[in-house]
Design brief:
The chain is an alpha+beta fold and 354 residues long. It is built from ten helices and 16 strands. The chain is 26% helix and 27% strand.
Length: 354
């Protein structure tokens, strides 16, 4: 086997490179806006750290390679309307939704989907971007630039936001990590905990849903499925055909991280059921400078991305995976004054969910 190339040169690609070292794999990342395309060999493998990209010389060349994995799958998940139709065809539960056609009215959306309706751009958008709420009580109008460019979803009053990370190889073998409980802030993932006591009961359902999807697509690699949990029922929110932020806890909390598992799947190395070490916590570091004081907190493992600081930008994350829940709570309390004020509620949320 030749090299593995990652389309995209962000933090996910960098963590895939790091995970490749103990596997004796050579992983290269490439900026989608690079002006020169490297020479690829016939036995090289191409994977991605993002499911949609602009048309550049790099994306044209790598996506045309015969070993570009999941080519048709990525086309599906680059357009939310196609994704939604696929989930419906597989009878996988999701929120009620509607195409926002050019001639649809806001009254029709509220009639079909309820008083609060979420518009999502068909392509792009993440971390709360590319979304717009319509509230019938506020007599919201339907902006013309969203017509034909978006889908509309009903508002789900969920109990928790959860996700599951699974991996599948070309032989159809699947393995899964424990269902993860997530907390978002302004549409951005702020914290994850896995496993939690209540999430264990959701594991069979989540695995069956994601297996059905990956098998249908003949998918190879790691896939993340984000869900709303209402009682004992899961509703799919988003699918990410790649390694995912809600799986970062696996770097400290499992014997095989999601990054290593992805590489095992795409390189046809053995897949094994990951062993979970402890109840693990992941906290995203948003819009702040690196603080060496984090390193003095018991059990803290910091992953810093080396990107420029911008408000609410994901600049790194902290993992905690201590053998005693009591000690994890103590470390979270020590972290609180070392983070911005809006983390106070998320720290309390983590302590309550452990």
């Amino acid at each position: 086997m030749g090299d593995i190339w990652v389309l995209g040169a962000g933090q996910l690609g960098a963590m895939l490179q790091h995970a490749a070292m103990p596997l004796a794999l050579n992983v290269n990342t490439i900026d989608i806006y690079a002006t020169e395309v490297p020479k690829l060999n016939d036995d090289d493998i191409i994977t991605v750290e993002l499911e949609h990209w602009p048309d550049t010389i790099v994306t044209q060349t790598l996506s045309a390679h015969p070993n570009f994995l999941n080519r048709e799958t990525l086309k599906i998940f680059a357009d939310r309307s196609i994704q939604k139709k696929l989930l419906d065809s597989l009878e996988l539960p999701q929120a009620k939704w509607h195409m926002v056609d050019a001639d649809i009215s806001v009254e029709k959306l509220h009639q079909d989907l309820g008083t609060k309706v979420l518009l999502k751009r068909r392509s792009g958008g993440y971390d709360g971007k590319g979304q717009l709420w319509l509230d019938q009580t506020e007599n919201s109008d339907l902006p013309s630039d969203w017509q034909g460019q978006s889908i509309a979803e009903e508002k789900i009053n969920f109990d928790e936001e959860v996700s599951i990370i699974g991996a599948r190889n070309s032989a159809g073998e699947c393995v899964f990590y424990p269902v993860t409980t997530n907390l978002h802030y302004q549409g951005i993932l702020l914290a994850s905990i896995a496993p939690t006591a209540f999430s264990k009961a959701l594991q069979p359902q989540a695995e069956a849903m994601l297996t059905k999807l990956m098998d249908h697509l003949n998918y190879v690699g790691v896939m993340a499925m984000e869900c709303f949990q209402i009682g004992e029922k899961l509703f799919i929110n988003e699918i990410a055909p790649r390694v995912h932020n809600s799986g970062h806890w696996t770097q400290a909390g499992a014997n095989i991280s999601q990054f290593e598992m992805h590489l095992r799947a795409v390189a046809n190395l053995p897949l094994v059921i990951p062993a979970t070490k402890n109840n693990s916590v992941m906290i995203n570091l948003l819009g702040m400078d690196f603080n060496p004081a984090w390193l003095a907190v018991n059990g803290v493992e910091v992953y810093w991305y080396g990107k420029g600081v911008r408000p609410m930008r994901k600049l790194g994350h902290i993992n905690l995976s201590l053998p005693e829940t009591r000690k994890t709570r103590q470390s979270l309390e020590q972290l609180k004054p070392l983070l911005d004020d809006y983390y106070d509620e998320s720290i309390e949320w983590c302590k309550q969910h452990l």
